[in-house]
Write a structure and sequence with these properties.
alpha+beta; 837 residues; 24 helices
Length: 837
């Protein structure tokens, strides 16, 4: 994180050289209300620019006065924004009825303040095309006075939340701004819905800063890297909120960056501004910290040799000193005492290895910054820098410890698919560290391969053979179901086998002619088997060797013969696709006497969440869905490399009842997954939601006040509002009016959370974004559902030319996943099914 401050006339005449020396950015008050321009604005702006600070300008809003007039006054005072200047800030902390004693705030006031904010933001954006508006506010103000509105989610969020209140002693942060983040995070801050993360955090108003004599200063943190902040200030291309993955900075690039500072001075204890592209002096640890900040290495490198060594150790990247001397970009440490068993050593030094027996370092006052011999220098510890790509590879190409990037992440995802929980600490983080190496060794040992811990062609091939196949939709014939009932607990006749597990009553559904999802696999003898799951029971069917050859050639079909009846009479069955991916016509016909949407609503009003969702699932399985949902639409999808395919998608969100009286029903992630599994479908990805919206009749979202948003009454109210404003006819592909329950890699990295995306505004932008960064925790648990959510089913099969492929297979294929995913392969594209409540 980066440190900054915000100032106004209340800080008096600032001595900027002293004030700016340890800051990365500053916000300066420009205007307030409709008349006032801060008397120090012009001076502060010019001085901040002279000192090389990234800077932004804020307007203190008075909502009881006209929004457009205030925005115009601000824009007039600021003029053009130049590179190095951040987006305009709207400081929103005073109500429109300030000073009106006795006024009771109402929902009408909330709507008025939302309109006021909208007008201000629109006016500023029209003046500065391509720019956003940063919103400064408190959580309680946003909740109480703007109703928790999600309309402005595309605006970066600056939160005022003081870690220690206004206590004159406890609320005073450390004198060094680089220590503010650790100080503030004793009470960590999270953004509130709909923001997935905050951009700036005002941590206190009690900072004492050099160069400011007349008052204390507001201290702030930026939630990102130097590059992120520079992009926000339009000094680098791209967007600070970009969801595309960038390659990790390399060890060689960091060495080159440090070498560019050769011949600079050494000053013990010297602090540099991390955003300064060319400081003139360093001490040893500042050189390392500055170089990492310049390349936006994440996680951020701390200050001080001792803290840097602990940073490396925490990432499990310590290594022998002699290995580090031969590793370009490795850190070499020298400590007078053990840095990990006691306190801070009295003497410490750090240098960076150039991999050829030399270092680049800020050595001492006599030598300054330069290149020096690495051998025989008394180094005590060494290690690699977390977040840096060292480009390690085993002989012949491949992956090994120290490698980083998308290929490493894909390998880690395969390891987790092979054996869940194999990487409990790191998960699939794209960093080939000690844990990934150990997991690779386990895999190689069990596969009978040379145990090297590195990933070469032989290891990759073995993984492709070992990976479990995702479920494919198969029909379970009625005759086979009856046969299975007859052989529970009995051995099968020679020539083939059909094995069943579970209570006999659980197989009644199979005997009546049911359908199931089947997972292809092999038994111990290498014979292909299919494991079915249906309504809570599981059984495995193993085919005779001859038909299995056909089944292996086409896992979605193939004739398979069975000896499977209580009389040991030969029987045969065909494992055929349950449906062709174009609809839910296999569901039983809807019973004319089944619950209507109105009756379903009345029946579930008093039920618990678990009971309500169980009833919904049973109604779907009985076929109680509108007829217009049964046939799916073809949606063309395209990958970044130009590959194209066709996905089959439900016309609308899941609902109960006939076409004349149905109810769209929000579901938790758990029940959404159960419905999808039972129907041989999958849940959409974020990319699929965007593709569906692009191909659909677009229905503008209708946001409600979030109060009571999880109640069934609000579910019905929102459904009725959609119907009142619905565009097109029932059965047309309709999108935009709900937030989709989606699958993402974040579900696997943060257990039992809910991912939602969509709810499109009239301008085609979603109210509900989804950041696919694995480091950020999803805000909702998977047992949460509110009025705005919806579940759209995606056919389990999709078309790739003349071929049919399981969507789950496509998500696992690095060459094809771009058709349906914008975050690479998704190794576990589903929610964990567990009891509700």
């Amino acid at each position: 994180m980066l440190s900054g401050a915000d100032v106004s006339v209340h800080q008096g005449s600032i001595q900027w050289d002293a004030f700016a020396s340890r800051l990365d950015f500053v916000f300066i008050r420009a205007t307030f209300g409709t008349e006032g321009v801060d008397r120090k604005f012009a001076t502060n702006r010019a001085e901040a620019a002279r000192c090389g600070l990234l800077r932004g300008y804020y307007h203190y809003a008075l909502p009881r006065l006209d929004a457009a007039e205030q925005a115009q006054k601000l824009c007039s005072a600021v003029g053009d924004l130049e590179p190095g200047e951040l987006d305009i800030v709207l400081d929103l902390e005073e109500t429109q009825h300030a000073g009106n004693s006795g006024h009771v705030w109402t929902s009408q006031d909330t709507l008025a303040l939302q309109v006021w904010t909208r007008r201000f933001v629109q006016e500023v954006k029209s003046r500065y095309p391509g720019r956003s508006v940063i919103l400064y506010t408190r959580h309680d103000f946003w909740r109480d006075h703007l109703g928790g509105s999600s309309e402005f989610v595309d605006c970066p969020l600056w939160i005022a939340n003081y870690t220690y209140g206004l206590d004159s002693v406890r609320a005073r942060p450390p004198a060094n701004p680089k220590e503010w983040a650790d100080w503030a995070h004793r009470k960590p801050l999270r953004a509130w819905d709909p923001w997935s993360a905050w951009s700036f955090w005002q941590i206190t108003a009690k900072a004492v800063m050099p160069g400011v004599r007349t008052n204390t200063v507001d201290a702030n943190l930026f939630n990102g890297t130097v590059s992120d902040l520079r992009r926000l200030a339009r000094l680098e291309a791209g967007s600070v909120t970009s969801e595309t993955s960038e390659p990790l900075p390399t060890a060689d690039a960091l060495c080159q960056k440090l070498l560019s500072q050769a011949d600079d001075r050494y000053i013990f204890g010297h602090e540099v501004r991390l955003t300064d592209p060319n400081p003139s002096a360093f001490d040893c640890s500042e050189l390392i910290e500055w170089g990492c900040a310049q390349l936006a290495v994440e996680p951020a490198m701390p200050d001080g040799s001792w803290m840097q060594a602990r940073h490396v150790k925490a990432a499990r990247l310590l290594m022998p000193v002699d290995t580090a001397i031969a590793t370009r970009g490795a850190l070499l440490f020298r400590f007078s005492t053990d840095p990990f068993t006691g306190g801070r050593p009295e003497h410490a030094h750090v240098a960076m290895s150039l991999g050829d027996g030399r270092t680049i370092e800020a050595r001492d006052t006599a030598h300054g910054v330069g290149v020096f011999p690495a051998l025989d220098r008394g180094w005590t510890h060494a290690g690699r820098i977390p977040g840096l790509d060292y480009g390690a590879a085993p002989p012949g190409g491949g992956l090994a410890r120290g490698a980083k990037g998308p290929e490493v992440k894909a390998w880690q995802q395969h390891l987790l698919m092979w054996r869940a929980g194999l990487l409990p600490q790191s998960g699939a983080d794209g960093d080939f560290g000690e844990e990934t190496e150990a997991a690779t060794r386990i895999f190689q040992q069990e596969m009978g391969l040379p145990v090297t811990g590195a990933v070469g062609p032989e290891t990759r091939d073995a993984m492709q053979r070992a990976l479990p196949r995702p479920p494919c939709a198969l029909e379970l014939p009625r005759a086979l179901g009856r046969a299975l009932l007859g052989i529970v607990g009995q051995g099968a006749a020679a020539g083939g086998a059909a094995r069943a597990a579970g209570p006999q009553a659980a197989l009644q559904g199979a005997a009546s002619g049911s359908t199931a999802m089947a997972t292809p696999g092999h038994d111990a003898a290498g014979v292909r088997s299919y494991t079915f799951a249906q309504s809570g029971f599981r059984f495995t069917v193993t085919a005779t060797p001859e038909p299995v050859a056909a089944a292996r050639a086409n896992d979605a079909g193939g004739a398979v013969a069975f000896f499977a009846s209580s009389q040991a009479q030969p029987g045969s069955a065909r494992l055929a696709p349950m449906f062709d991916g174009t609809g839910l016509d296999w569901l039983p016909p809807r019973d004319p006497g089944a619950l209507t949407g109105t009756r379903f609503y009345e029946q579930v009003r008093g039920l618990s969440l678990a009971a309500r969702e169980e009833l919904f699932l049973q109604e779907v399985l009985r076929g109680n869905v509108p007829s217009f949902l049964r046939r799916f639409h073809r949606v063309t999808v395209e990958a970044p490399d130009g590959k194209r395919g066709v996905a089959y998608v439900c016309a609308d969100y899941l609902a109960i009842g006939p076409d004349t009286d149905f109810l769209r029903m929000p579901l938790t992630g758990v029940t959404a997954q159960r419905v999808a599994d039972a129907c041989g479908c999958v849940l959409p990805t974020k990319k699929l939601v965007k593709d569906i919206y692009a191909a659909s009749r677009k229905q503008t979202a209708i946001p409600f006040d979030p109060e009571d948003g999880t109640k069934v009454e609000r579910f019905r109210d929102h459904h009725l509002a959609i119907e009142q404003h619905r565009v097109g006819e029932l059965g047309e592909l309709l999108a935009g009016h709900k937030k989709d329950v989606v699958v993402t890699n974040r579900l696997h990295h943060h257990a039992r959370r809910l991912a939602i995306f969509g709810f499109y505004k009239a301008d085609g932008k979603p109210w509900q974004p989804l950041d696919t960064s694995l480091r950020r925790r999803l805000p909702h648990e998977d047992t949460y559902a509110d009025y705005s959510h919806g579940v759209r089913l995606i056919g389990g099969l999709m078309a790739l030319g003349s071929d049919q492929r399981c969507v789950a297979d496509v998500l696992l294929d690095p060459a094809l996943c771009g058709l349906v995913s914008d975050e690479g392969i998704i190794s576990v594209p589903r929610y964990e099914v567990h009891p509700l409540g």
